[in-house]
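Input.
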Amino acid sequence: MSRDAPTISVAEYAGVVIDNYCEIAATALIIYESLIITSQEARYFWSGRLTGAAVLFYLNKYLVLLSFVYTMMGYIPGMSDRRCTHVVQTTFVIEMLVYLPWAAFSGMRAYALCRSRILSILIFCLSVVPIVVNWRRDARRQTSGTD
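Output.
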């Protein structure tokens, strides 16, 4: 049994490394795609006046992009513990803020379909629940010291 333990840990480490490489590759593709369509985005969204739809578009795109950039910062080698803690906390906040444009869009879509303010507010509130749950879970994890 003890002879198998190093083999298992090497296999687990190899799996984590492969998972990290896949995450880095996917994030690089998303950032690249975002950069190459910036000229089209400027033509269609930046030229007109600022509307609610444009604000939702910008928030949705750039909060997600910022989330990916901060996730990539977690792979920088030799980062101090203090800096790493800052990156992890900032990444968590950005990942939670991503839910806000989604919730707003869901509420607006419900209002457009049924013209019911109560229903659209309810859908918005229910769409914000993951933020509260994740924030609460993270606060509990930090106070208990578990990951």
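The two ends are 27 Å apart (CA to CA).
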